[in-house]
Specification:
Shape of chain A: flat
Largest sheet of chain A: 7 strands, mixed
GO biological process, one term (chain A): GPI anchor biosynthetic process
CATH class of the domain at 33-295 in chain B: Alpha Beta
Keywords (chain A): Endoplasmic reticulum, Glycoprotein, GPI-anchor biosynthesis, Membrane, Transmembrane, Transmembrane helix
CATH class of the largest domain in chain A: Alpha Beta
Structural class of chain B: alpha/beta
Strand order of the largest sheet of chain A: 2-3-1-4-6-5-17
Number of helices of chain B: 10
Family (chain A): Belongs to the PIGS family.
Oligomer: heterodimer
Number of strands of chain A: 17
CATH topology of the largest domain in chain A: Collagenase (Catalytic Domain)
Helix content of chain B: 25-40%
Largest sheet of chain B: 7 strands, mixed
Shape of chain B: extended
Strand content of chain B: 5-15%
Radius of gyration of chain A: 36 Å
Strand content of chain A: 15-25%
Structural class of chain A: alpha/beta
Helix content of chain A: 40-55%
Distance between the termini of chain A: 33 Å
Distance between the termini of chain B: 129 Å
Radius of gyration of chain B: 31 Å
Number of helices of chain A: 16
Number of domains of chain A: 3
Order of helices and strands of chain B: HEHEEHEEEEHEEHHHEEHHH
Number of strands of chain B: 11
Largest interface: A-B, 73 and 57 residues
CATH architecture of the largest domain in chain A: 3-Layer(aba) Sandwich
Subcellular location (chain A): Endoplasmic reticulum membrane
Membrane topology (chain A): Multi-pass membrane protein
Strand order of the largest sheet of chain B: 3-2-1-4-8-9-10
CATH architecture of the domain at 33-295 in chain B: 3-Layer(aba) Sandwich
CATH topology of the domain at 33-295 in chain B: Rossmann fold
């Protein structure tokens, strides 16, 4: 059959319109859509509201003379306290302290009979090995001679503490009163040895901008490096005057003996890589002044700030990674400016003759004019006393890594850390704050990444990014669960995995394409393509519709 | 009565003095930053844009002089003026006419040069999304205690800045990049200076906290260049950066000049355009912000008061036995060029591609002419 011309035209227009709408539009939509892999958005939203619970286990051991025999039968018992603190609307903390009371065994009693607290501590921790994150507090009678007069608490090198019962507990108190007296004091010991609210809120500084009231905590916060999977440590020997001094330092042996034990102990927290260098003709940027009262050259505290920059330009680094670098410089002053001493702010003497800069490193000035001998013949051969040097650098390293705790409360005596430079409880303390910091940073990273991807609709989300995000979310949930259970080692490990995965996802180079197309540019691109095609189709469709309506009107008119 | 008043005055004087000492110690904590970074970008190519390169290099010179080391500066120059064929004095870039000041210097370290200066690379540096093979010198490794100075110069317009004469960055993209930096806590405080035409439009869209911005001209105004040098033949600097450089030459690392002085640099009488600034997003009062907080690198220092007593002697590193038992591992370089493969290369099988472009057009033309001449109806007679 033959269709009329007009009919054929109408059919053509209708079929073109049909093809455009049914085939064209979906095809255009699919080809201009960006690939976005699925992200666990609901879990991420849950993580945005961070509810952290930190559990600490304490074992309180009663030595002979602290409890009566009838009370001894009621002990062992366990008490649990919980404390809730809300930081802001998205972050809440809960502290859970589980205290187990028991009486001392015979071997522990023997250990506590040692003449001094340090020896008691030494023999006590040969008896039991407390796991990471837990503490043992030995309660000793008030009359005990282990601790000096004004000291009530002695904190040992491992995870033990000696607590002296207060005078009010002398006679005829019940067990409940005894426990009520001990509980806040044990809590205080916990705050020094494990974590305090201030430490944990400082660790959360990524989520909550920390504004503490005292200057000391601000300085502590600014000084230590942020948590990072690795650190590079560089030891540099600066010899500005090789004509006078020929310096020898056994840096390899010194690092192996003094620094490596600390770094090995810190290996659950981060990886460390060490290197060393010697720089010749490297001067300090400041001129020291000659102080006649001490007949030596001095550098006062204000000029120290300007010492670092000229030296840093020459230091260089061979770090191939993006890890933070800690620089430790040993400066041997030239013969004309020897000896050189550093003065404090109030012109006082500085015994270590060293200073450090927050988040950068430390500098020590080592005077060698004592090595000259009676008739020095330049150049003088000098063997540097590495033990003294490393003692100072180790102290600075502890400060910069955040190991050093603030001054303990009055009545507390803290044992000097051993030769590794790190007490076990200090390591635990660092692990608590690092775990919390990692969890806080990872949650902020993941939530802001999810928010960013939500806001900018045309960023491509590849499969590997989705996988990193999912694994970060899983690790975070595991880390939070382990913190609740009190397994500090696992919590730190999971938190490190979470941080690595979240940083990798956030800083993936592929998240930068197709950034911003303003709407007017989008119209400017599409209109020349689609408008010439759509105008004839629309016009012919309109014509069809108007003709159909006209025919219907004619039919109506014919009927009437 | 009088003695009472005198005593009070004396006491307050003593107290104030005491506070002063506390203050200088407390200034340690007033700014909250421990390190400084600078990102200096020149976005224009071609010899006649010499002044943009000179702008950037003069800020680079000031920043280095005030203490920021090269490892903390990311310098991006879109074209090489010092070694340009048209430079009558090679290896120099001057900022004052009569060749008074060579801002190129002896130890300039350019991190991104030539065609590497693109919008993509600039945003990658800011947000940190660089490929893992990028060296440290090309990265902005700032942390939450870094103060960053960002300086942009080039040709710009209302809401955009032109890169390399071929692409642009818009103020929305810049604001988003700063927001991403804030989310990841990549800065403590950020100072943004821009010297282009209509520069104030570039900081209109900022919405992240702790940003302070300065621009050389308002929306609708052009930033003008300063003086030409007749020997070199081009304008050497832009006005705003010229007077900024003069201002910075008076600053030394211990200077106490603050941001309010910086806002007064280049008034309308000197600059012809009206410089603008934006401080509403900045948390501190600009009068308490030192110039050296951003342009210099004044380190905070603390005296080390404790040292650890180490008593163990140094362990001797074990001497390896000097006999031939040790197998030294043979290390060798990976083949830089696979020479054997190149020599014995077989001709590659080329994949078949459908004809494109020119061939397709040519055939279409031939077919059109064919059908036009012969018409479809008559094809029956041919085939």
């Amino acid at each position: 059959m033959f269709l009329s011309e007009r009919r054929r035209g109408q059919l053509a227009a209708l079929s073109i319109a049909a093809v455009v709408i049914i085939v064209g539009v979906p095809l255009w939509w699919r080809t201009t859509e960006t690939y976005r892999a699925w992200l666990p958005v609901s879990q991420i939203k849950e993580l945005a509201k961070l509810q952290l619970q930190l559990s600490a286990d304490v074992e309180a051991v009663f030595a002979r003379g602290t409890v009566t025999p009838e009370q001894q039968k009621k002990v062992p018992l366990t008490q649990t306290q919980e404390e809730e603190r809300a930081i802001d609307e998205d972050t809440a903390l809960r502290y859970r302290y589980e205290t187990r009371y028991r009486t001392a065994t015979i071997m522990e009693e023997d250990a506590l009979n040692q003449p001094s607290a340090a020896e008691a501590d030494l023999s006590l921790h040969t008896l039991s090995e407390s796991p990471c994150g837990s503490l043992v507090v030995y309660v000793i009678p008030e009359s005990s001679s282990l601790l000096p007069e004004d000291v009530n608490v002695y904190i040992g090198q491992r995870r033990t503490a000696l607590l002296r019962i207060g005078p009010q507990m002398r006679v005829g108190k019940t067990l409940e009163q005894l426990l009520a007296h001990l509980e806040p004091r044990i809590r205080q010991v916990l705050q020094v040895m494990s974590f305090s609210h201030n430490d944990i809120t400082a660790a959360l500084s990524d989520r909550v901008r920390f504004s503490p009231d005292n200057k000391e905590s601000i300085a502590d916060n600014m000084r230590a490096f942020k948590s990072s999977p690795g650190y590079e440590i560089t030891f540099s020997l600066l010899n500005p005057d090789p004509k006078s001094h020929r310096l020898h330092w056994d840096i390899e042996g010194a690092v192996q003996t003094y620094i490596q034990p600390l770094l090995t102990k810190l290996s659950p927290v981060a990886n460390f890589s060490i290197d060393s260098q010697t720089l010749y003709y490297a001067m300090l940027g400041v001129n020291p002044r000659f102080d006649t009262s001490r007949s030596a050259y001095t550098l006062n505290a204000d000029s120290l700030a300007h010492v670092i920059n000229p030296v840093e330009a020459r230091l260089g680094s061979n770090a191939a990674s993006s890890n933070p670098v800690l620089n430790f410089l040993l400066y041997v002053p030239d013969a004309q400016h020897s000896p050189l001493y550093i003065q404090g702010r109030k012109k006082q003497e500085v015994p270590s003759n060293a200073f450090h800069s927050p988040r950068w490193g430390g500098i020590m000035v080592y005077n060698v004019n004592g090595f000259y001998g009676s008739e020095p013949e330049f150049p003088v051969d000098i063997n540097i006393n590495m033990a003294k040097v490393m003692g100072v650098f180790l102290a600075q390293l502890r400060l910069l890594l955040g190991v050093q705790s603030s001054t303990p409360p009055p009545g507390f005596l803290v044992a000097r850390c051993g030769s590794t430079g790190l007490a076990d409880w200090e390591l635990d303390r660092l692990m608590w704050s690092r775990s919390v910091e990692n969890v806080a940073t990872a949650t902020t990273t993941i939530t802001s990444l999810a928010q960013l991807l939500d806001q900018i609709g045309n960023i491509v989300i590849n499969d590997n990014i989705a996988q990193q995000v999912s694994s970060a979310v899983t690790s975070l949930q595991l880390a939070v669960a382990e913190l609740e259970a009190g397994n500090l080692g696992f919590a730190l490990q999971y938190s490190k995995e979470a941080i690595l995965a979240s940083e990798k996802a956030f800083f993936d180079p592929s998240l930068l394409h197709l950034l911003y197309f303003p709407d007017d540019q989008k119209f400017a691109i599409y209109i020349p393509l689609f408008l010439p095609m759509c105008v004839p189709i629309l016009l012919s469709l309109l014509k069809i519709v108007s003709e159909a309506r006209q025919r219907r009107r004619e039919k109506q008119a014919k009927k009437d | 009565m009088k003695t009472h008043v005198l005593f009070n005055l004396f006491a307050t004087f003593l107290l104030a003095d005491g506070l002063n000492i506390e203050d200088s110690a407390g200034q340690f904590f007033s700014s909250g930053h421990t390190n400084n970074w600078a990102v200096l970008v020149c976005t224009s190519r071609f010899w006649f844009n010499y002044r943009h390169v000179a702008n950037t290099l003069s800020v680079y010179r000031s920043v280095k002089r005030l203490g920021i080391p090269d490892s903390h500066i990311v310098l991006m120059l879109a074209d090489d003026m010092a070694c340009n064929h048209r430079n009558p004095k090679p290896a120099t870039v001057f900022s004052h006419k009569n060749m008074e000041l060579n801002v190129y210097g002896d130890d300039v370290e350019v991190d991104y040069r030539g065609y590497e200066v693109t919008v993509e690379n600039f945003l990658r540096v800011l947000t940190g999304r660089l490929p893992p093979s990028t060296p440290r010198s090309k990265r902005l490794l700032s942390d939450d205690r870094s103060n960053i100075l960002i300086y942009l110069t080039g040709h710009g317009g209302n809401g955009f800045l032109k890169f390399q004469d071929s692409e642009e960055i818009s103020n929305v993209e810049l604001a988003d990049a700063f927001e991403q930096m804030w989310q990841k806590r990549r800065y403590n405080e950020l100072l943004f200076i821009i010297d282009t035409c209509q520069g104030a439009s570039m900081y209109e869209r900022f919405y992240s906290p702790n940003l302070m911005a300065l621009a050389s001209s308002q929306v609708g105004e052009d930033s003008l260049s300063h003086q030409p040098d007749l020997a070199i033949g081009v304008h050497l600097m832009d006005r705003y950066t010229f007077y900024l450089l003069e201002f910075l030459e008076d600053i030394h690392p211990a200077s106490k000049a603050n941001m309010n002085d910086l806002f007064k640099v280049c008034p309308k009488s000197q600059c012809v355009s009206t410089p603008g600034h934006r401080t509403d997003l900045f948390l501190r009062d600009p009068g308490s912000v030192l110039i050296t907080d951003f342009f210099g690198s004044v380190r905070k220092v603390e005296i080390t008061t404790e040292a650890i007593d180490l008593t163990d002697p140094i362990k001797e590193v074990e001497e390896r036995p000097a006999n031939g038992d040790i197998h030294k591992e043979m290390h060798s370089y990976v083949d830089q060029l696979p020479v054997s493969e190149i020599i014995h290369q077989k001709p590659k099988q080329k994949d078949w591609h459908p004809p494109d472009g020119f061939i397709l057009g040519l055939w279409t033309l031939i077919l059109l002419v064919f059908f036009q001449t012969y018409g479809v109806k008559h094809l029956r007679h041919i085939f």
